[in-house]
Amino acid sequence: MGISDVDLSQHEAHLQAWLDRQMHGEMDYMAAHGMKRARPAELEPGTVRVVSVRMNYLPPDASFARTLKDPQKGYVSRYAVGRDYHKLLRKRLKQLGQKIQQHCEALNFRPFVDSAPVLEHAIAEKAGIGWTGKHSLTLSKDAGSWFFLGELFISLPLPVDQPVEEACGNCTACLTACPTGAIVEPYVVDARKCISYLTIELKGAIPEQYRPLLGNRIYGCDDCQLICPWNRYGQLTDEGDFHPRQNLHQQELLDLFAWDEETFLSKTQGSPIRRIGHESWQRNIAVALGNASYSIDITEALEQARPRSSELVREHIDWALAQQERRRYQATPVSRQQQRLIRSIEKGLPRDA
What we know:
It is a single chain. The protein has a domain of about 200 residues. The protein has about 350 residues and is an alpha+beta fold. The protein is built from 16 helices and ten strands. It has a four-stranded antiparallel β-sheet, with helices on both faces. The protein has a two-stranded parallel sheet with strand order 3-10. Helix 13 packs parallel to helix 15 and helix 14 packs antiparallel against helix 15. A hairpin with a 5-residue loop joins strand 5 and strand 6.
């Protein structure tokens, strides 16, 4: 943990420029509160300090990179394979506030965990938790970026911590590794291109140009973290709630796609995945099935699901079926005579030309 004051004015211009470029996409809440996001004392009157905390979530023996290499399985971002961190971290922050309150005649405090317009990375940077990496996440030399952040706004003028030195140097691994090029320049992420945004925040259709780039990622993306050299020093969590839940980790896409809404709600109870809803879940998996190697089982599953699916999901099923058909065509041995016939048809020539 670390402590910062409430002066985040140096980040206001950067935030406004990002909003002006519409890089927040459909996340209207990012712009709805104006500059309150950079002004903690306006968000919670009386606040003079922010206690910033980190909580490691890297589970042991999670084999995530292996899942990315298996196109028949669904990849879920590391942070989401366990229980929802929001409630757990917020409860701990509340308890911390109550402990401090026992020693103060008057103290106002309010915990935040992604629950209000808070510049959590800017606060963490100022509190000495780490520095902001070129992928816009907070980095620490002893933990990489595999941790959650939370904030406790308080009215007590505690002594503040000092920021740590930035240590990305000339490294641009995260920029080059991003599948969709969402890190458009160092420290600037265009959410509209980010796989995490496309699979979690976006409620409508995933733009076609990004669908092949999603691969088998059905909820979030970790590529910019997986490639980061500082994550070699990531610390394993000792919090059991953050360990993988077997019904969400390393599962076959076809098994996940077969979940009806009732099953989805049951299997994702207590998981952050639940908030995207069954429709977006089906949409994401349909895209992943379209990116998988050709399989008659996949084709049949998509065709069987199509009549009972929503218009949004049907659009992605149709795209996936077209991708599967293209792969079937590419995988089928073709004789020289058939090749000549195909080339003739493609050129618009008579078959007997």
